């Protein structure tokens, strides 16, 4: 395949991921200080429980808005941090949100109950019946509890991604209900025109980010590029490559190593979105993804017809040469994890070593392409076969194949057990964390 890759990124001392994370933390810290400032200016209630309840409610609102930004799929953040890490942070801030809102409900209820001389349950029912916005807040809190419950690992593993995603859409209902509650009874919200403008601005940025990254940008790109299936090429009994064509693909900001959420618009698959990496560097004329059949949906892809329309969301991911810190590289692939590795090899300059780990030679998908690429670029290719025991990527074995491993950037992609084992090996070999690049493709965290 002839490709015209984008100019390779040069190693940089300024780490884009660190810059983006620092920026996010700084924005959150500044907003936390602003919230505290407006809270103090609004004055305090006589009851300490009510004071603390209002403060936890305000910080709960701020965390909720911050969560929306984390999953808004904004290109600047995604390319520097990665959707997997942003999703993970969204998950953990979600639990922080849950406990913050729980504290808000408990403190406010007990505070007002103490002043009225009634029980907390009676007071909560009375507030919901008589105070505007409280019933909406109770419903919002219930939705947050449901979303939090399905985010627990034990529940997440039992749910299909589509089911998990559908339940999480109710979080947006909770956001709207929480906002209307804040408008109706938030003393800090209405304490001054500046406070009101601030909170309207916070919610406008948060909801606007979601609309931009998750709705407007995908719709605009698909309308512009008109993606369609141009070829379906079986690579083995279980693996198939799908070639995508479209308009103005030279202006699509995709990089080797990134992935899209692909929806193939057939009668039985239009509602399913699956994350598949590009298996070749974008060349401005077409895109290629290579998929292994691991379920009924992915197995059906080999029967796609040429001309099938495609709705593609992306490109996403920070698994690119943007994060290079060294001129020489080591690329480690396991199984079908070779797809972004093969694309990255096209995009890298400098000497590269490729280690491809599979159970047997017949499982080495795209091996011929890797071999030809390695030969053309002067890279070293090692095909490692055999069972998982003994570990053929253990420290001694990997050091033997790549003696200068600690002086290279390491790009890693493969099944989770293999990735975890290799990450342990890299740590033992003293490879600095900043030189290790990987991405986990579980969108639900």
UniProtKB/TrEMBL annotation:
UniProt domain FAD-binding FR-type: residue ranges: 222-322
GO cellular component terms listed in the entry, alphabetical order: membrane
Superkingdom field: Bacteria
Membrane spanning residue stretches: 18-40, 46-71, 92-113, 133-155, 167-185, 197-220
Membrane topology recorded in Swiss-Prot or TrEMBL: Multi-pass membrane protein
Cofactor(s) named in the record: FAD
Coiled-coil ranges (or none): none
Localisation per UniProt entry: Membrane
Metal-binding keyword on record: yes
Entry GO MF terms: 2 iron, 2 sulfur cluster binding; flavin adenine dinucleotide binding; metal ion binding; oxidoreductase activity
Official protein name in the record: Oxidoreductase
